[in-house]
Amino acid sequence: MIPFHLAFEPGLSLYEQVVYAAKKAVLSGRLRPGDPFPSVRTLSTELKINPNTAHKVIAQLVSEGLIEVRAGIGTVVSVRAGSTAAERANLLKKELEQLVVEAKTLGLTLAEVSAALEQHWKRLDGSGA
């Protein structure tokens, strides 16, 4: 079973989408240090992606220090997998850029976007509208 959600988006490579979903699961704490991480075979089979793509995903996550391969155990979430505010915020980079581009296209000001963001935040947080 894959321990993270993946919503396939057209226009983005499968590799980037799987890496993003896995990073999000680790940095959000859904996957904790020491938790098992799916093997190349499991990723490939369950996500229906090429084994080479699955291998590339795991290699990327290992190189970033988010997961590690332990002899006799398998692939696990790294103890060093930090979850700093900067790392979590970096996951939103693409979405924030899209929001800014759309807002500018619509002619909205930074103040208007900030106010709308605050309103939605409060609504979802249950602290008023």
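That was protein one. Protein two is written in the same sequence-then-structure order:
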Amino acid sequence: MFGSLLVQFALVWWETQKTGSATILATASLVAFLPMVFLGPFAGAIVDRNNRKTIMILTDSLVALTPSPWC
């Protein structure tokens, strides 16, 4: 999770440097971090009730299969 947060922060910062816009910084930050705020409590309850290893495999696979908009 720490690595994912670092990548997320790096992408937000890269977008800001490329555009030089504070609006892009604010928008990218909200889009990157708000889902964690809203989904975190529910995801925690789901993970606690299920097999953590299986959930980690599923979520990592989903991240790996998601196309990157920067490529």
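Residues 2-65 form one domain. Keep this in mind for the problem set.
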